[in-house]
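Input/output pair, single chain:
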Amino acid sequence: MKYSTSPTPSRSNSSLLGMASSSSRTTSPLPPPANFRSSDCLSATSKSYKYLRRFVKFDQMDFEFAMWQMLYLFIAPKKVYRNVNYRKQTKSQFARDDPAFLVLLVAALCVTSIGFAWVLRLGIGQSILFLLYVVFVDCIFCGMIVATLLWFVANRYLRESTADMDVEWGYAFDVHLNAFFPPLILLHFIQLFFYQALISHEWFVSTFIGNTIWLAALSYYIYITFLGYNVVPNLRNTRIFLVMLPVLFLFYVVTLIIGWNLSVSLMYFYHYRVL
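Output:
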């Protein structure tokens, strides 16, 4: 079906969805789906193959639902994760089986990278190299490293000892992609409108605005990451992710005191990386 990942509008399933959202840390009362097979839950290779195969089938991607997720990652991130336990019961996995979100994320990276290249005054060749760096290194490669680290921590230290199900690596990568989108828009899009006129100067207000955007972006990443792991029923002590928020705020205050403009440093890093 084309809209296999969209929330169903039916009354019965909506009520079940509400039950899942009211207690995201509990197991859903839904029975396994008719096509459920225990081997599906254990075969990461099979899931990866099905996911990658859909990259060439745009007519089967639910772009409308993916855009809904992107919007609510900004205004109400909790709503995005209300469907996770429901997906586990209906699709036998927490991770997305639809690559539409990743496709739209890469498209957003391409658009914002054009704006970044214009601000940095890069040539055509440098702009292409910058785009490749942002998509394949900053987003995908670094995302795989972060997802693998958090996947290991979640399964090794946060999973309940009696749980017979671990966190899927694909879901850990999904959590990274969700958490990556708001910082992308804040740092690679909104910031560009103020950089040349205001943020790039050596004024205190320039440092304040630039670093505040960074504070908001990294806070989004930490909070959405927390929500992603907090919704998994067999994980405990997931609030440990929120410990980074006061540390981040302290770092933010220190940068203001010493006058370190993080946005200018980011621009220098991006500019000299492609020279």
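DSSP finds 13 helices and no strands in the chain. Residues 195 and 210 are 8 Å apart (CA to CA).
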